[in-house]
Design brief:
The structure holds two protein chains of two kinds. By secondary structure, chain A is mainly beta. Chain A contains no helices and eleven strands. In chain A, the strands form two sheets. In chain A, strands 2, 4, 5, 6, 9, 10 and 11 form a seven-stranded mixed beta sheet that branches. A four-stranded antiparallel beta sheet of chain A has the order 1-3-8-7, with no helix packed on it. By secondary structure, chain B is mainly β. Helix content of chain B is 0%, strand content 53%. A five-stranded antiparallel beta sheet of chain B has the order 1-3-8-7-6, with no helix packed on it. Chain B has a five-stranded mixed beta sheet with strand order 2-10-9-4-5, with no helix packed on it. Chain B is globular, with a radius of gyration of 13 Å. The mean pLDDT of chain B is 94. Chains A and B meet through β5 of A and β5 of B.
Chain lengths: 114, 107
């Protein structure tokens, strides 16, 4: 397996535009996590899914952020409208089961909102 | 929810010395404690983990200890090498991470 795949690797967009980040899970994994990493706030857990169902979205900063799992192997994180303070590296990670097991991270998407 | 605190935020050691990073957690129900290493431009990667039914686990130069009573666990790296330089994160069961420790190993 190629591991968790995120796209794009880099995204530069203008304030107010919609941004969609994509993540392909490792085949057979049932849990999916989205994180945001900044110097100030570290690695923040935004939302996680188990068997395609969102379990906890308490980390999602605002209603401008939304995440979906249209199928068992794919997820999107959407920001609409984007703001400069959304600039960060966004990671997704997948694991075999929801808890107490290793999470495998993608390479991340570096988002810059100008 | 679970709160994980990690110290120190930065750590600089001489090659060959040991490095220790400490974490505390708040939820007594947590029973899985992984440590991740993040190299520049990459996602975090698991290096070692420990479950609450053991107090210590070792893998070559890396060891982790767990004190459930005190709710803290630590990462120990012995005989450090320049390639150990990275950011290290601890986490608790619910996949919330500590703030990270930037380790620099000086040759």
């Amino acid at each position: 397996d190629a591991g968790v795949i995120q796209s794009p690797r880099h995204e530069v967009t203008e304030m107010g535009q919609e941004v969609t980040l994509r993540c392909k899970l490792i085949s057979g994994h049932n849990s999916l996590f989205w994180y945001r990493q900044t110097m100030m706030r570290g690695l923040e857990l935004l939302i996680y899914f188990n068997n395609n169902v969102p379990i906890d979205d308490s980390g999602m900063p605002e209603d401008r952020f939304s995440a979906k799992m249209p199928n068992a192997s794919f997820s999107t994180l959407k920001i609409q409208p984007s703001e400069p303070r959304d600039s960060a590296v966004y990671f997704c990670a997948s694991s075999l089961v929801l808890s107490n097991t290793e999470a495998f991270f993608g390479q991340g998407t570096r988002l810059t909102v100008v | 929810g679970e709160n994980v605190e990690q110290h120190p935020s930065t750590l600089s050691v001489q090659e060959g010395d040991s490095a220790v990073i400490k974490c505390t957690y708040s939820d007594s129900a947590s029973n899985y404690f992984p440590w991740y290493k993040q190299e520049l431009g990459k996602g975090p990667q698991l290096i070692i983990d420990i479950r609450s039914n053991v107090g210590e686990k070792k893998d070559q130069r890396i060891a982790v200890t767990l004190n459930k009573t005190a709710k803290h666990f630590s990462l120990h790296i012995t005989e450090t090498q320049p390639e150990d330089s990275a950011v290290y994160f601890c986490a608790a069961s619910n996949m919330r991470f500590g703030a990270g420790t930037r380790l620099t190993v000086k040759p």
